[in-house]
Amino acid sequence: MCAILFPRPELEAKGVAALILARYKKEFPPELGNQVKEWLANDYLDNWASVDIFCPEIMGTLLSRYPELVKEIKTWPGHPNRWVKRASIVSFLKLTKKEGFPDIIYEQAVKLFPVNDDLIQKANGWVLREAGKRDMARLERFLLKHGPAIPRTTLRYAIERFPQGKRRELLLKTRAKNL
Questions:
Q1: How far apart are CA 151 and CA 118, in angstroms?
Q2: pTM, whole model, 2 decimals?
Q3: Residue 20: domain span
Q4: Total domains, the chain
Q5: In whole angstroms, what separates CA 45 from the centre of its chain?
Q6: How many CB atoms lie within 10 A of CB 147?
Q7: Per-residue pLDDT for the chain (179 aa), expressed as one digit of tens each?
Q8: Which has the closest alpha carbon to 51: 12, 92, 76, 83?
Q9: Is 131 helix (H, G, I), strand (E, B) or coil?
Q10: DSSP letters of 27-60?
């Protein structure tokens, strides 16, 4: 079904395929991870909405069930396709509170800092913000540690849950130093 509907241009066709696939998540084989990457690389899921709906549900389930797939998705930030890069972080969205995954999320986030693509930067900040809900102090330490390396778009998304004064402070403390 996915092989037929994902290549179609209509968002609705892609959505129906994703919903049907998700109904079978208890039966997902680990090989589905490679198929997902192929769909992304071929631009079958070719917009932020498709990736953001599909990957947390499908890839998140796969990553949770088959931890060995984490090694593969850790390479996705270096892929030339923007949707594969975006999937490399949004796939962890539903795993931000699951033991062991915040470490991986923070590691993935750093790999995406150099990517000059607003859709990647926004997704990165979004997932960091969600990881921060579990441990705001850890998110703050992470942001301060990486400071100027963090794209401002990523940073602004990541700090949305902090009080206004703390947001201002983090924006100042992470700003690149003027030489």
A1: 9
A2: 0.93
A3: 2-128
A4: 1
A5: 14
A6: 14
A7: 898 999 998 989 988 999 999 999 999 999 999 999 999 999 999 999 989 989 999 999 999 999 999 999 999 999 999 999 999 999 999 999 999 999 999 999 999 999 999 999 999 999 999 999 999 999 999 999 999 999 999 999 999 999 999 999 999 999 876 43
A8: 83
A9: helix
A10: G--TTHHHHHHHHHHTTSS-SHHHHHHHHHHHHH
Instruction: Tell whether 116 is covered by a domain.
Output: yes
Domain membership of residue 106 (yes or no) is yes
Of 51, 61, 4, the C-alpha closest to 30 is: 61
CATH classification of the domain holding 64: 1.25.10.90
Q: Please indicate, yes or no, if residue 109 is contained in any of the structural domains.
A: yes
Rg (CA), the chain: 17
The four Cα atoms 108, 114, 120, 123 give a dihedral, to 10 degrees, of 50
Tokens of 100: 């062991």
- CA–CA dist 161, 21 (Å, integer): 33
